[in-house]
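User: Hi! I have a protein structure encoded as tokens and I'd like to know what sequence might fold into it. I'm fairly new to this, so please keep things simple.
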């Protein structure tokens, strides 16, 4: 099996301790990436000493997670891109298994199952909950009401395919993953596979996240996603999307 060149892209903003945890999980991979790109999207440059082999790409001003990820993809040299949010972590076998699936199956996209790690108010308090397993097949309509299993930390994708689909949409304050998933699923010839083993740890912590219920970014993202995809949704799915937003986030988009 011929190897590939693999780039890891980590967007970050003002969270050095969480970033260090994410980087430690990258360092622990059984398949070390060929490059690690930390996209510094903060108001001020990140005050953090990065280990050898990790490159910092500094945005001149904060642009948001979508544009930060796209910036990383634009300068990455890898044939494959693996995205990791700065507050999430990977199981040590994540990259090795995703790459093996991609290379043996000639895949352009590999999504991996993930666990939700609910962090308590005190250090060391955690509750680990099985979360989503990505679908066997990607159907565009599956992304119009709910997220069937794509996040910023379980996306392993060929650089060519990422660029072909247009990357993440920076016009959306949040819900970038559902939007990207929809556009990827619309590619009729997409070569997709999944890893049903939970190798990605999605951390739910007290700090601010894009999915924090009721936050301005969350509400603006709901409204922007609905405005962008309402025509494709149709009336029934629009109603279902609004109902789900009220149930999960306590807001009506």
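Assistant: Happy to help. Inverse folding works backwards from shape to sequence: for each of the 253 positions I chose a residue that suits the local structure. Here it is:
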């Amino acid at each position: 099996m011929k190897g590939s060149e693999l780039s890891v892209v980590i967007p970050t903003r003002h969270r050095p301790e969480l970033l260090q945890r994410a980087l430690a999980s990258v360092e622990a991979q059984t398949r070390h990436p060929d490059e690690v790109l930390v996209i510094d999207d903060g108001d001020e440059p990140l005050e953090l000493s990065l280990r050898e082999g990790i490159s910092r790409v500094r945005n001149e001003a904060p642009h948001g997670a979508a544009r930060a990820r796209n910036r990383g993809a634009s300068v990455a040299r890898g044939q494959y891109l693996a995205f990791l949010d700065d507050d999430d972590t990977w199981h040590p076998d994540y990259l090795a298994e995703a790459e093996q699936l991609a290379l043996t199956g000639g895949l352009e996209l590999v999504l991996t199952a993930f666990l939700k790690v609910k962090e308590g108010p005190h250090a060391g308090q955690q509750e680990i909950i099985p979360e989503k397993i990505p679908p066997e097949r990607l159907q565009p309509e599956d992304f119009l009401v709910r997220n069937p299993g794509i996040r910023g930390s379980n996306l392993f994708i060929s650089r060519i395919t990422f660029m072909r689909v247009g990357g993440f949409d920076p016009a959306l304050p949040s819900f970038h993953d559902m939007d990207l998933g929809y556009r990827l699923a619309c590619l009729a010839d997409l070569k997709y596979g999944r890893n049903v083993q939970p190798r990605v740890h999605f951390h739910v912590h007290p700090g601010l996240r894009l999915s924090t219920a009721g936050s301005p970014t969350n509400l603006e993202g709901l409204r922007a996603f609905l405005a962008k995809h309402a025509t494709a949704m149709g009336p029934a799915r629009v109603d279902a999307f609004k109902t789900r937003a009220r149930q999960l986030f306590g807001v009506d988009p």
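A useful reference point when you look it over: Residues 216-249 form the longest helix (34 residues). Feel free to ask if any position seems puzzling.
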